[in-house]
């Protein structure tokens, strides 16, 4: 099983919105064969809490324009790791230190990456 077309559409839109706010290290993994709760994890890095908030707002705005609303948000107050769960996709916006420490890329390295269509 692979990620649905809707999940790929949302992942690309989230990545584009994050890229517009200068997020770095944007990558997506098709986790549909490993998890039943979501199809794609989108990971990106923000340099500081204000940038991470701007990335979060841009992702939410872009996905809302596509009819998607988050079913869960976590980590907004700390500003070091924000998780936006859209059921089809989960967007992780992490500060560089958290990204390195938790190493989600290593954890999901068995999964195929999703072409996000970014330059």
UniProtKB/TrEMBL annotation:
- Lineage, top-rank taxon, reads Bacteria
Gene3D superfamilies in the record:
Beta Polymerase, domain 2 (3.30.460.10)
Gene Ontology CC annotations of this record = cytoplasm
Signal sequence interval, chain numbering? none
Q: Which InterPro entries match?
A: Iojap/RsfS/C7orf30, NT_sf
Is Cytoplasm one of the keywords UniProt gives this record?
yes
Q: Where in the cell is it found?
A: Cytoplasm
Q: Which UniProt keywords apply?
A: Cytoplasm, Repressor, Translation regulation
What is a biological process (GO) this protein takes part in? cytosolic ribosome assembly
MF GO annotations: ribosomal large subunit binding
Describe the protein's quaternary organization and the partners it interacts with: Interacts with ribosomal protein uL14 (rplN).
Any idea what job this protein has? Functions as a ribosomal silencing factor. Interacts with ribosomal protein uL14 (rplN), blocking formation of intersubunit bridge B8. Prevents association of the 30S and 50S ribosomal subunits and the formation of functional ribosomes, thus repressing translation.
The record's NCBIfam families line, in alphabetical order, gives: rsfS_iojap_ybeB
Q: Which family does it belong to?
A: Belongs to the Iojap/RsfS family.
- What's the name of the protein? Ribosomal silencing factor RsfS
Gene that specifies this protein: rsfS
């Amino acid at each position: 099983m692979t990620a649905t077309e809707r999940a790929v559409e949302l992942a690309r839109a989230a990545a584009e919105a994050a890229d517009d706010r200068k997020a770095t290290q944007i990558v997506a993994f098709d986790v549909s064969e490993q998890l039943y709760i979501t199809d794609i994890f989108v990971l990106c890095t923000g340099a500081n809490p204000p940038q991470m908030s701007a990335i979060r707002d841009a992702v939410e705005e872009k996905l809302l324009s596509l009819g998607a609303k988050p079913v869960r948000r976590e980590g907004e107050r700390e500003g070091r790791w924000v998780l936006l769960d859209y059921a089809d996709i989960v967007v992780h916006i992490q500060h560089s230190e958290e990204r390195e420490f938790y190493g989600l890329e290593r954890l999901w390295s068995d999964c195929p990456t999703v072409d996000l269509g970014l330059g």
